[in-house]
Design brief:
The protein is of the alpha/beta class and 207 residues long. Helix content is 48%, strand content 14%. The protein has eleven helices and seven strands.
Length: 207
């Protein structure tokens, strides 16, 4: 396939982020956690911060709308680091193997707030293995919209038909595929390794 570039998503692929890790400490039952995340601090609300909205604006908006939930709302950013359990080690091993093979350019494309991404850079050494990272909160554009993919293509001279994109979110994968990227819909490190072998990114003998 003559692929020369591998692009990784971060959250859910290399970094284990899940707001449930935090809210299981705040609420007594999984049902309460689910209700809060489905009705108050929703994925759509969080997407706006990934797109560049400030934590302060987002938090105050929800507190005004749901004052009875002020404490757990403020915990989203006040205790944000507790939503991350650490690296997904198996995927980091895959990334290390691709890096050590020195045959492919490595980039990351992430939906992440610009206010918290510096913490990730300080705490995950493997983020410095990439030649470049495009962060939605910095660009004020986010996946799955095509504009942020084009920012990456243009900034780093990436030819989509020579690149593979890895993401756990099917909407992001669908956009990437429409833009001409080869794609891997990430499920787990073992599946990723198998897919990269199929694409010729990794050797079948890689461990």
């Amino acid at each position: 396939m003559n692929l020369n570039t591998v692009i990784f998503d971060l959250g859910g692929v290399l970094i284990d982020w899940n707001p449930r890790y935090l809210y299981r400490k705040i609420f007594s039952t999984e049902e309460e956690v689910s209700w809060f995340l489905e009705n108050i601090c929703t994925s759509a609300w969080n997407d706006e911060q990934d797109g560049g909205r400030s934590f302060e604006e987002a938090t105050e908006e929800l507190v005004r709308a749901f004052p009875e939930h002020e404490l757990p709302i403020r915990a989203w950013y006040g205790r944000w680091q507790e939503t991350i359990s650490g690296p997904i080690h198996g995927t980091v091993d895959v990334l290390r193997t691709v890096r050590n093979n020195n045959q492919h350019r490595l980039y990351a494309l992430t939906n992440w707030s610009d206010q918290t991404f510096p913490w990730a850079l300080d705490n995950f050494d493997f983020l410095h293995w990439f030649e470049g990272i495009v962060v939605s909160g910095v660009e004020k554009k986010r996946k799955p919209f095509p504009e942020i993919y084009h920012i990456m293509f243009d900034r780093y001279g990436i030819e989509p038909n020579r690149a593979v994109y890895i993401d756990d979110n099917i909407k992001n994968i669908e956009t990437a595929e429409r833009l001409g990227l080869h794609v891997v819909h990430y499920q787990n490190p073992e599946q990723l390794r198998t897919e990269l072998m199929r694409l010729g990114i990794m050797e079948f003998t890689s461990s």
